Each structure stands twice: as structure tokens, then as C-alpha cells.
Amino acid sequence: MSSVTGRAVQVPAAGGAFEIVQREFPEPGPGHVRIRVEACGVCHSDAITKFGVFPGIAYPRVPGHEVAGVLDAVAADVPLFKPGQRVGLGWHGGHCNYCAPCRRGDFILCENGQISGVSFDGGYADYVIAPANALALIPDDLAEVDAAPLMCAGVTTFNSLRNSGARPGDTVAILGIGGLGHLAVQFAAKSGYRTVAIARGQDKAPLARQLGAHIYIDSTTQDPAAELQKLGGAKVILSTLTNAEALAAAVNGLGPNGKLVIVGVPDKPFEVNAGTLIMGSRSIAGWPSGTGMDSEDTLNFSAQTGVRPLIETYPLERAAEAFDRMMSGKARFRVVLKTGA
Fold it and tell me: Residue 105: which domain range?
């Protein structure tokens, strides 16, 4: 092994403009690998690095936590992975193995966990160096541009649904058909749930049905909670929205023992009637992303069932434009950088 040089799109300081630089990517240290990046999704959470949302980010920093590529170098103490394997790297950037959550096997809640593209340089680059315990193997029949968004948007929705308590045949509603929601609808339908898609406008109905939704609710002309109650109430409502009012109103659409699972951060705090929760044994929960193994399950399920993100691609050198496109909310539906390697 030896160091290699390549491009990186870094943020020089919080709020600074993206800049393309040449960097040296050294041999990976113990427990680490070097990935030759083929594609990297542009996620809204990349704004954390771009604008310094989290405290303590060391700049300059390269964003990117939806990485798909090929292993270029592997440390001698890493037993599973080999150069040449296709791998993905997601939001979960490794765990310590020794804190209380890790000792219980709950690696995503590691007290010392790292975030790709925040704690260390991410995938807006030709190469990325990452902890081996964060990786997922990519199946051969899944293209790199499709695999990349599944490393965050995909695993977040797939993992939250499969851990929600819903069983095949249960009514599962997806709030919002955007970057997360359009994948959630596919995962819900392919998992055997009676899938309800909720979004604004009748123009989204054909897309919802194309993605697999059995029922579409237009929140501009219908009351989503009332419509869900006509169906017997939802076992699970998965919210990908940022609108706090719409999120709060959805609670009334839950059936007995129903659960509202939040994966999209609302724009402000919201209020719910505790009586609604108590009398129906209903609950509200948040869900984080997932570990490398969770991502690998997501990739395999997607390859087997035909779940794919709808994407717009940009070359690496147009990362700033790609980021702005994502932040505009107009992308349909995930933006992906290609290195051209």
C-alpha cells in the first residue's frame, strides 16, 4: 500500500464556499480502509458540515456520507474486507465497541460514534478513508449511483420500517414523497404493508402509485387523519416531513397501538394531545439511520425487490451546484455526485 492523490471538495470554514483541492490520501491506519469513490449522494444533512451546524467540526472538512465505491487499500488488521470489493459508507461512521450501547450491540447509539463527512472527511472526493466497521458490501447488480443514496436515505427509511412493529398487511402511511419519502413508499409496498402515501396535490398521485402506494391522500383537499381512520387507522405513520403542524395533525390518524415514527426533523417543536396517545396506547418515536450491516441489508433488499432512488447526477467538480440543487428542494429526488473514475 502507498498514498494516492486525488480531488476533494472541501469546506474551508463554517459557511465558506466549496473549494476543489488536490489532496494526498495516505495508507489507512489500523482498523481503517481507503475507498476509491465512484458516487456520493448529496444529502440535506451535508448542511451540517457546510454551515457548521454541529459544534466542534474541524475545518477544512470534506462532506459526504452516502458513499459508494471500491476498496483501494485495507489495513492489515481488518479481516473481512479486501481490495477490489464494492462497499458503501453511510452516516454511521464507525463505533467504539466499548461504551454501554456498543456492549449491548446497539452500535448506532455509540457514545463515541463518528459521522462520515462530519467527524472525518467524507465522500465529496476521489477517495475516502474510513473505519472498516462502518462499511456495507454492495451487491453486484446494484449500480453505484443507485447504491449511494441508499446509504442514508435508504437505510433510514428501510430500517425504521422494519423495526416499527408493522407486519405484512398492516396499514402504513408515509408522510411526504420527497428524498426520503419516495424510498419509504417503495420499501413499505415491497414489504407487504398496505401502503398509504400522503403528500400535497393530486399531481403527485400518479408518482405515488408508480412507487407502489395502494392509496394516495392529497393533504390539500383531504384530512389525512380522517382518511386514515376510515381505513381503520394506521399501524405506523412514517414522517419524512419538516412541517411541524402537518406532523402533529397526523397523530390523529393512528389506530390503536399505532406508532408515529419520525425520520425527518420538523422545523419547530410540535404539540400533541396526550389523551390521544394514552387512550389508544399510541406512541411517537424517532429513528436514527443504521449501521453498516443495516445498510448492507438495505442494499440487498433493494437489489432483490427493485427498489431504486430517483436521482439527478452531477460530476464531482460541480459539487457546489449539486448542493444548491439539493437545498432548493426541487431535485427529483436525490442528487448524486459521480467522480468519473
Answer: 4-152+289-338
